[in-house]
Amino acid sequence: MNIITNDNEKIIRATDAVKDVIDPEIGLNVVDLGLIYQIDFDEDKRKVYCTMTLTTQFCPMGQSISDGVTNALEHTFPEFKIEVNVVFNPPWNSQKISEEGREFLNQ
Questions:
Q1: How far is CA 40 from CA 15, 51, 61, 79, 101, in A?
Q2: Helix/strand/coil for 47
Q3: Burial of 33: CB neighbours in 10 Å, binned 0-12, 13-18, 19+
Q4: Is CATH 3.40.50.2000 the classification given to domain 2-93?
Q5: DSSP H or E segment with residue 99
Q6: Domain boundaries along the sequence of the chain
Q7: Could you give the dihedral angle defined by the CA atoms of residues 46, 51, 54 and 56, in that order, rounded to the nearest 10 degrees?
Q8: Is the bond into 91 cis (omega within 30 degrees of 0)?
């Protein structure tokens, strides 16, 4: 995941916030699953841009997951407008799962 800001506290807060969002079919949070590609803070416009993906384009829980990311960031950064963009390029694959995620999934 790539987080762009000059404020390390925001990096920690954003990562912790979206780690609370769980993919309900897999049971793993979206960070360790590798679904969050980038989080950008635009301090001047007071916006947080999050680029993420889903395990497949046809994920039945896709809207719920992206809404969860939006809600987690809105709750953590109420002074910012949140924009979540779901992309499929590059496509997700199991190599994006973190070491912690692999341990959780017993891989």
A1: 12, 9, 24, 15, 23
A2: strand
A3: buried
A4: no
A5: helix 99-104
A6: 2-93
A7: 140
A8: no
Q: What is the DSSP letter of 70?
A: H
Question: Hunting for tokens 């719920």 — which residue is that?
Answer: 64
Encode pLDDT of 10-39 as tens digits: 989 999 999 999 999 999 999 999 999 999
50, 39 in Cβ contact below 8 A?
yes
Cα(82)–Cα(73) distance, rounded to whole angstroms?
A: 7
Digit-coded pLDDT (tens) for 78-87: 999 999 999 9
Q: Tell which residue, 1, 7, 71, 11, has the closest CA to residue 32.
A: 1
- The answer to whether the beta carbons of residues 13 and 76 sit under 8 Å apart is yes
Whole-model pTM: value is 0.91
Report yes or no: 3 and 66 within 8 Å, Cβ to Cβ.
Answer: no
